[in-house]
Amino acid sequence: MSSTPVYIICSPRPLVGKTLLARLLSEFLLLKDGAVASFDINLKEPSLLEYLPRLTETADVMDTYGKMLLMDRLIVHDGIAKVLDLGFHAFDEFFKMTNEIGFLKEAVRRRVAPVILFVADTDRISARSYPMLQEQIPPKALITVDNEYVVRGELPPAMGVGQVLRIPALPSFLKTYIDRLSFSFTDYLRNERDSSTELHQWIRRNYTSFRELELSLLPQRP
């Protein structure tokens, strides 16, 4: 692995599917690589820690000590992909911190590759926050997530100019099913014999999208 990826899943808004995306991505990376380190920065439950307790640890960016601990874990080129589920309450503080300490430049120096997965919404807060990220994050490292369960229609034009990761909407009864704390996406793929089920296809489609995202982030050979 030429660099260690750090996926930062974020939104300034609650209830946009951040933790669902963090679960999916964490399970995909665990299946593909055999290891993943996930971090949970959330106020309300259910949180990533409750869904994936063996893979996840809590983190805090609201005080100096917590920030230092988290950065020490994220800035390590150890070949283990990191997934950070950044709660909406910590959005501003986190990116203020990363900008002040030059996190992106230090990451490049240490062969760490941050990828910002911004979960889109159509509200004013998201519209104000996205340009701020564009100023800080290189275009290739800023991915807009179109969760079709949240954005029912076209993305705001400003958020659709770069790379977009689309998460198809599930029917409400299936969403209730996967929201159970005991549910595992990978276990479902392994144990469900009928690969034509809507949920099976949905999980496979998302895992394929993650793989395509990974490939798009690899350095291009001359």
Describe the structure.
The chain is α/β, with parallel strands linked by helices. It has nine helices and seven strands; from the N terminus they run E-H-E-H-E-H-E-H-H-E-H-E-E-H-H-H. Helix 2 (48-51) links the parallel strand 2 and strand 3 (56-58). It is globular, with a radius of gyration of 17 Å. It starts with a strand and ends in a 5-residue tail after the last helix.
Mean pLDDT: 94
Question: For the largest beta sheet, what order do the strands appear in spatially?
Answer: 3-2-4-1-5-6-7
Assign the CATH superfamily: P-loop containing nucleotide triphosphate hydrolases
| N-to-C SSE string, H for helix and E for strand | EHEHEHEHHEHEEHHH
Task: Give the CATH topology.
Answer: Rossmann fold
Strand content: 15-25%
In short, what is this structure?
It is built from nine helices and seven strands, in the order βαβαβαβααβαββααα. The chain has 222 residues and is of the alpha/beta class.
Write the layout of secondary structure elements.
Elements: E1 4-10, H1 18-33, E2 37-41, H2 48-51, E3 56-58, H3 64-74, E4 82-86, H4 91-101, H5 103-109, E5 112-119, H6 124-136, E6 142-147, E7 164-167, H7 172-178, H8 185-191, H9 198-217
Parallel strand pairs: 1-4, 1-5, 2-3, 2-4, 5-6, 6-7
